[in-house]
Every structure is written in structure tokens, then in C-alpha cells.
Amino acid sequence: MQKTKSFEPNTKAFDNLLKHAISPRPICFASTVDKDGKMNLSPFSFFNIMGINPPICVFSPLRKMRDGATKHTLENVWEHPECVINIVNYDMVQQQSLASVEYPKGVDEFAKAGLTPIASELVQPPRVAESPFQLECKVRDVISISDQPGAANLIIAEIVKMHVQDQYLNEEDNVSPYDLDLVARMGEDFYCRVIPESIFEVEKPTRTIGLGIDSLPEEIKYSKFLTGNHLGQLGNVEALPTQDSIENFKTQLGNRLDIQKFKPTEVRHQISAKLLDQGDVQSAWFWLLMKI
């Protein structure tokens, strides 16, 4: 077991490490207006979707670390409880960052960041035309945790209409994550980019009731060649292959190869690990359970 070092809240190291630990975080690029209709645009990475029916997002403009003052976005939401959450992709990530500058109240961050405001349909704050997804929201509640520097202000926003750029929609009105080129916030000045090389699939264990890692044979569970990810894949099957199917696999293999060279358990575990890396769970099980 790996050694750990502990950190207490309200220290510089804790605050910095927490942003590395809980990452990557999607970016809420929020447009708001004050009671006079003046626009504000600012990004927040303490943000996520929290429900579907109704569709709820929560983001948090923290109080400023310097003096505990509130941010313009929060003040605007108090005055006019609406916002638009504009999702950020790589094409606009630098402009999004520029909009985070603490300009004086009343300064147009759309103009400063070179972004295009377009009218919303159900709320007053404008949308960002460059954003691939634009979520019009009614603010249902604001929960302020305290008045201390860095304190959270949870803005609970219900999505009342979503707009998606046509270029990302297919004929079924769906999108591909390979096309969106989304970005997310990490610790310090770091971001990450969702490029094709970073996307992978993990089959949801909702279609079947997986056996679980605790039900795996001991020699498999404690194999030095199988990682925790491998065991998770193996434990996600509903039932082990039948003995007949294992013998059929062995016969077919023997018709093509000298299976005696696969007799050592370690060899078969190494082959199974490679098959699991390729997503072929069934073949991996055959190799693991085949007796030679």
C-alpha cells in the first residue's frame, strides 16, 4: 500500500492540491446582467450538472481570496436571477481566460474577450455565439456558505433551453465527443483538452449484474500481471464462460498453434492482460480459465 501525507483545510498547500485532486473540471462560462441590464461574462470551474428532471447545474463564484468581496456574477444573479452557461472548447479557451480578468463593474467582457453576444430566447443575459453549447438558465436558489475569503456561493440554475451549434449535430441530433474539442480546468494554470487520443469507453455495469472482483478465482485476483482495471473488467461479467465454450476455444487454438508453449500460468495471464487492454474480455476469460 502506498504511503500518504495528510493536509488540513485552510492552508495554501491544501487549497492548491485540492484543485489538482478534483480535476479536470468543466468550465461554466456564465453570462449575466444586473438590474439595469448591463452584461457580465466570467468563467468558473467549480461547476457541474446535478440533475436531469428538471435539468440543474450548479456553479460557484467564490468570494475573493484577497478580501472576501463578492464577484460581479454573484451580485448580478442576486439582482436578476438568470444566466447563460456557455460551454468552452479549445477554439475559445484563451478568450475565456481573458474574460476572467477582474475588470471594473460595467466593463463589457464580451468586447474585451472579442466574443459575440447573441440574444437568448427565454432569459435576458445574452449567449456566447462562439460556444458549442449555450444553456439558458433560471436561477432557482443561491446558497452562500459564509462571508469568509474563498467561501462558496452555490448558484443553482435550472436549464430552460439549450442551443447547440449545427456543425456538431448529426442527423439524429446527437454529438460525438471526438468533434467537440472541449477543455477543462485543472490545478494552477493547467487545463486539459479532450482530444481523440484521450477519449476511451468504459462499459456501464447497468445492463447486467457483474460478478464482482471478490468472486474471481484467487490466482486471477492476485495475479501480478493483472491490474485493478483488468480485474474490474473481468468482474463486470455476469457469468463465467461455460466449460464447453472454454474447451471449444482450446480446440480451435490447438488447431492453429502448439498450445503447450502456453502452459505456464504466467504466459496466459500476460496474454489475457493484453486482450483486456484491447477490450476483449471474453477472450481474456478463455485464456485465464483454459487448462493445459
Summarize the structure.
With 292 residues, this protein is α+β, with helices and mostly antiparallel strands. The chain has helices at 12-21, 72-79, 93-98, 109-113, 177-180, 218-221, 228-235, 243-254, 265-277, 281-289, and strands at 28-33, 39-44, 47-52, 55-59, 82-87, 117-118, 127-128, 133-144, 153-164, 183-185, 191-193.
Characterize the structure shown:
It is a single chain. It is elongated, with a radius of gyration of 26 Å. The model has no long low-confidence stretch (mean pLDDT 95). 27% of the residues lie in helices and 22% in strands. It starts with 11 loop residues before the first helix and ends with a helix. The chain has a seven-stranded antiparallel sheet, with helices on one face. A two-stranded antiparallel sheet has the order 6-7. It is an alpha+beta fold. The chain folds into two domains: 12-198, Roll (Pnp Oxidase, Chain A); 213-289, no CATH class. It holds the Pfam family Flavin_Reduct. This is Flavin reductase family protein. Residues 22-170 form the Flavin reductase like domain.
Task: Give a quick set of tags describing it.
single chain, 292 residues, alpha+beta, Pnp Oxidase, Chain A, 2 domains, seven-stranded antiparallel beta sheet, two-stranded antiparallel ribbon, 11 strands, oxidoreductase activity, acting on the CH-NH group of donors, NAD or NADP as acceptor, FMN, Split_barrel_FMN-bd, FMN binding, Flavin reductase family protein
